[in-house]
Design goal:
5-stranded parallel sheet, alpha/beta, disordered C terminus, 10 helices, about 220 residues, about 10% strand
Length: about 220
């Protein structure tokens, strides 16, 4: 009898791979995380590699650097734009999955990919939302329910993984004063006063360092 799919999770930040591993733990009979690669190469005993596209941009790393030849790599991102997903396929990924997927849908999509099937678009696409600010089909992002704008959300995501204000400014190509303004507004909406509180709040709300990856790598 075939055992569970053996999955390696790749991201530069240990907190991210550990969190995803915990999310998948209830589905161990279907998908077993055999490796969490934070700043180390993936070994050759995985069936599939889930590659978080934020920590190591596809501009700066090759698919061969992520996994040994012969092990399929799946890109994992917040973005849903067709050009971004096509770029992941051109880079060498066999598929691109959205970080908005629930654990159950993520597992189903990974199993489908491992079987050699093309994942159902319902598994891969980011869901839309219907609310007063955006209407039917509006884009969603972490922190939106708490009133954060897209930019405030990505600033909080970068803060949550340890970047300084200066580093955030350089990554987003904005001024340091702009970063301080975004953080001030985000703190008020999150009802926090200190950076440590903001980090805990962001992690509790499901922020990931891949928030709006295309903006972070520059437009």
């Amino acid at each position: 009898m075939r055992g569970p799919l053996r999955l390696a999770v790749v991201n530069d930040y240990e907190v991210v791979v550990a969190g995803l591993t915990r999310m998948l733990a209830p589905y161990a009979a279907q998908v077993r995380v055999v490796e969490i690669a934070a700043n180390i190469p993936v070994s050759d005993h995985a069936d599939l590699v889930l590659f978080d596209t934020f920590a190591q941009s596809m501009d700066n790393v090759s698919v061969e650097d992520v996994a040994p030849v012969g092990i399929p790599v799946v890109a994992y991102t917040w973005e849903s734009e067709p050009d971004v997903w096509q770029r992941a396929l051109d880079w060498g990924a066999v598929a691109c999955l959205s970080k908005t997927l629930s654990a159950a849908r993520l597992v189903a999509a990974l199993e489908s990919i491992h079987r050699g099937d093309t994942p159902d678009p319902g598994h891969t696409a980011a869901p839309t939302v219907d609310n007063a600010s955006g209407g039917e089909g509006a884009r969603d992002w972490p922190g939106r329910a708490e009133g954060l704008t897209e930019r405030e959300s990505e600033v909080m995501a970068l803060l949550a993984v340890g970047h300084s204000n200066q580093e955030i400014a350089e990554l987003l190509h904005v001024s340091i004063n702009s970063v301080k303004t975004y953080l001030r507004h985000a703190y008020r909406k999150a009802e926090v006063n200190r950076r440590s509180q903001a980090v805990l709040w962001a992690l509790d709300k499901g922020f990931s360092p891949d928030v709006l990856h295309r903006r972070v790598r520059g437009r």
